[in-house]
Amino acid sequence: MRIVFGGLPYFYDDGIYYQQVGPDYQEIYPPIGIGIPQLPDGTVVVMAGNLTYYYAGGAFYVAQGDNYVIAAPPMGVIVPELPPGAATVSVGGVAAYQFNGIYYRPVFVDGVTQFQTFLP
For the whole model, what pTM was predicted? Predict the structure, then answer.
């Protein structure tokens, strides 16, 4: 699907966003505010206070009218998996992960490792 946002063309396919670079397409993290009519497969509901977010592929969506738009990642929420391409980093001597300026720390939920967003 082709989406024009902020005057620029983006291409979207089931949770993955691309921009054309020459004759090729490069996968990118979607800009905040870009919208799609249907959530990607495998989307997980994440609550932050009284707000409902939808998490898929490292992106957080919120419902807005008939669309789902990319939102700034909420801090302190727990997600079941890291975004693809998250890099291992050290924050205060503790292992964490970073992706697109957001940090994730491993936490255990019911004996399963999940990941909580935070800013160092």
Answer: 0.90
